């Protein structure tokens, strides 16, 4: 699965030595804020946007990977997703392929990263000029203790290939 390079399809970047300064910012910008049941607020400015020919993966991270405080949220979306409200149910194929949350937990006296997959959820998405924003996302799943896990929040992300000149 090859990821799209930020310069793909952007002749201004390919020919920048002839045209002068580049016309895009090679960094992803974004933020995600979410309320998490029985956990601290998830507030991230570390966002990643990746796409292939079939899907988009948007990830938000908090803390340093490898630390006990590290947490991550990820959304896997169909490459052709547009503005709209999308329900999600595990096992039903739609425009939202997956929603996951990763956190560090203690199991059998050891700290491990635990992946919580959404069973049900929704995404209210706006796509404008390669900028993706969720006015609201929700998902419910089960945590490492088989307890109810609920999260709701919003995000905005501008991928590196977006140009707003």
TrEMBL record:
This is Uncharacterized protein. It comes from Pseudomonas weihenstephanensis. It comes from the Bacteria.
